[in-house]
Amino acid sequence: MSPIKCCLTVASLLAAGCASVPAETAATVSAPSVQDGGAATAAVVSKDDPSVVHLEVKPMNPGGVISCREVLQSFSNVIVTRCMSQDDWRRFKSQQAQQAREILRTMQGGAFR
Questions:
Q1: Which residues, including other chains, have CB under 8 Å from residue 63's CB and lie 6 or more apart?
Q2: What predicted TM-score, i.e. pTM, was given to this entire model?
Q3: What is the distance, to the nearest Å, from the Cα of residue 9 to the centroid of all Cα atoms in its chain?
Q4: pLDDT tens digit sequence for 62-89
């Protein structure tokens, strides 16, 4: 997504959020004064607010990360871009090694043709 679209999306969400705040909530919640030492902020944060969404962060499987590479297409002279996960790239590399071994055996005239 382009940076301009990101900025416009954030600005529209911020404007919509500010427009939807009820008047009594805006009047009761105020910035804490210097004398409070942040006590008002702690009271606001500790209150169970149904609009607060708690998200659980799960660690990502490093083998599931998608990456793209430029590879030579089999039996041709064309470079193509392929996007696969790390696990799939490992399988792709082992398949290419197997193909290379088979081609070498065929070229040497081995028994495994």
A1: 85, 86, 87
A2: 0.42
A3: 18
A4: 777 889 999 998 888 999 999 998 889 9
